[in-house]
Amino acid sequence: MTDTTEQTCVVIGASHAGGQLAESVRRAGWGGRILVIGDEPYLPYHRPPLSKDFLAGKKSVDNIVIKPAAVYEKLDVEFKLNTRVESIDRASKTLVLSDGTTQSYDKLALALGARVRKVPIPGSDKKGVYYLRTIDDIESIRPYVGEGKSAVIVGGGYIGLETAAALRKMGMEVTVIEMMPRVLQRVTAPEISAFYTRVHQEEGVKIVTDAAVEAIEGGEAASAVVCKDGSTYPAELVIIGAGIVPNVELAEAAGIALEGGAIAVNEFATTNDPDIVAAGDCTYHFNPIYDRWIRLESVQNAIDQAKIAGAAVCGTTNVYSQLPWFWSDQYDLKLQIAGLSQGFDNTVIRGDIEHGRKFAAFYFVGDKLVAVDAVNMPQAFMMGKRLLLAGTAVDKAKLADETVDLKSLL
Predict the structure, then answer these.
(1) Model confidence, pTM
(2) Which of 53, 149, 176, 398 has the most CB atoms at less than 10 Å from its CB?
(3) 262-321: per-residue pLDDT in tens?
(4) What is the DSSP string of 138-177?
């Protein structure tokens, strides 16, 4: 690579992807300045604990930062926090910041992440109504949490169910309202939806499906959630989980190409501007394992793609080709997901999904294995990953038979 001693690489976004990008740029040989600009007042932090241990007060901000300040100092990575980038001028390679200053760059990395999807529910501006995405969101929610208090979660996706589990464990009366016929409908098979509905009900959570929220009632503060069928659910706390939206406006205004509602990057995590890379929730990239373009919302993607982007900043073109994987923690359940199940047409279940709390669901398109969901079954998750990467035919009968060692299927 060329001498970068006098050059500046700016990373926009102090996120999972942003923190990893800065580290990867340095480790790939960048000799100049590395500056990370973030709009929150915190160093990059883990988001998964927000709806669990952080909400419960079991972890502090210091406990959830991805790396302590000393690590970044050793890498000579600077942070400018509580600051937004208002615009990117690619011609002059200059950024305009929210504090009125400008910042020049030689290389630019976009780790813009995503924001919560807002829904226009009447009454959603009342006290006690929140979305959950950041540390500050949790700090605002905490005063409404307590034993015997009531909460309604609007949205039965993973975030909604994780939050429901955390609040229930803290002694709250919890109702989950989902507009689809089943929870997790967009991301799992009906058997998995039924499993999570059963477990939450066993734990004392009320699950309401096929229900559209009409309004949030109360005076200055929320007191109840009303559905279009007239049903009403008491709620001192309402948390809305309607998914996320990639932050692409800054890139779009600068003429950076978008596809699929996100920033388009090539196999090296580089945008249509050779001096600008991007990684994480905000990107749309080609996955050679599934032979299609995808946008992933996962910690794994943010970190792994950031490593590729960091190398690209320094002129090393490593191809991004990773099997996607995810996880979700609820109660005593550790769900591990490998692969992408979209488009599946049949499933194979290993274990007692109807009565127990340990099983694996293997998703197929015809006879091709495309994904696995494993609950409290880590070996099935690991072997599922190996089977997915191998791409070989799998005997479905043996897959379902718990007496058969999964290693024998490779």
Answers:
(1) 0.95
(2) 176
(3) 999 999 999 999 999 999 999 999 999 999 999 999 999 999 999 999 999 999 999 999
(4) HHHHGGG--TT-EEEEE--SHHHHHHHHHHHHTT-EEEEE
